[in-house]
Structures are given as structure tokens and as C-alpha cells.
Design brief:
Number of strands: 6
Distance between the termini: 46 Å
Structural class: alpha+beta
Radius of gyration: 16 Å
Order of helices and strands: HEEHHEEEHEH
Strand order of the largest sheet: 1-2-3-4-5-6
Shape: globular
Amino acid sequence: MPTSENSHNRRNYLENEIHTEEDKVLIRSAVQNDRKSWDALWEGYQDYYEVDLSGTADNTWQRLMAEQSVGPFCLVCEDDVGDLVGFVTYLFHDHTWHPEPRCYLVDLYTAPEKRGAGIGRALIEAVYEKADIKGCSQVYWLTQDFNEAGRRLYDKVAKLTPFIKYQR
């Protein structure tokens, strides 16, 4: 466990202690004190997808920290020395096909130096747990076609669907 001043606060938000392929990590809800570390991961996420969301980062963070029933929510992965090495955001929503809500996994990112260690899988499985608690009939997400490493993981933890995305 981290020995910093924030350790006590972080223990209060502990979700799951997970042993990945390389490290023991904590998956927990993001807290206000995570902002600086989250910013660095958020920038890496944007770089990977070649987008600039810097103009919405403050608003996104405020919504992730707000008390809400449907989200968006953020879980982070903390390594054994207390550094954030990944995050996932998700939200719940109603659907016309089932009376149960669904869970949309919005963003998933693992620091490049930690990829392949099981962190992405641990974050997805943590969202699965949250969705099960909420009674969701489904967890789903989108990814870019060039995200080959991510897609190899997704093929192991979910089923590829035939849906095609359109947007205005």
C-alpha cells in the first residue's frame, strides 16, 4: 500500500486488490486527489487515439467526480507504489430492448509501460462487477479498428457484434 498522505483516503475507496500477470494492483474509484495523475493518463489516451480533448478535460473530470446514479464513473488502477497506471470510464443507461439498464464502457487506457500485464482486463472485469451490481443486461464498448492490441484482449473478454456505428 502507498505510504503517502493520501493513503488513508485511498483505502476508503478500495474496490479490488488484483494480482495481474506482473504486479499486485488496486482497482478503485477515482478521487479528487487523482487529478494530476489522471491528466497524464488522459493525455496518453488522447495521443493514442489522435484526438484533442484538452478543451473538455476539466468538464469531464468534474462529471467523473460528481455524485450521480448513472455516471459517468471512473475507476483507476493503482500499482504497488501508489502510481496510477490505467483508468476506465463507464456509464449506465436505459434501453428499449430490455427493462434492465445497460452499461457503456466509454474509455479504457493503460500506461504503455504496463500494457500486457493484465491491467486492461482487470479494469474491464471491474466494470463487469459494477454492471452486475446495477443489474445491467449488457456491458458494451466501441474501439477503433487500428486498436489491434486492445482488440486481442476484447476478443478474450467479450463477443464481437455485427453492429456498425453511425454518427452525425
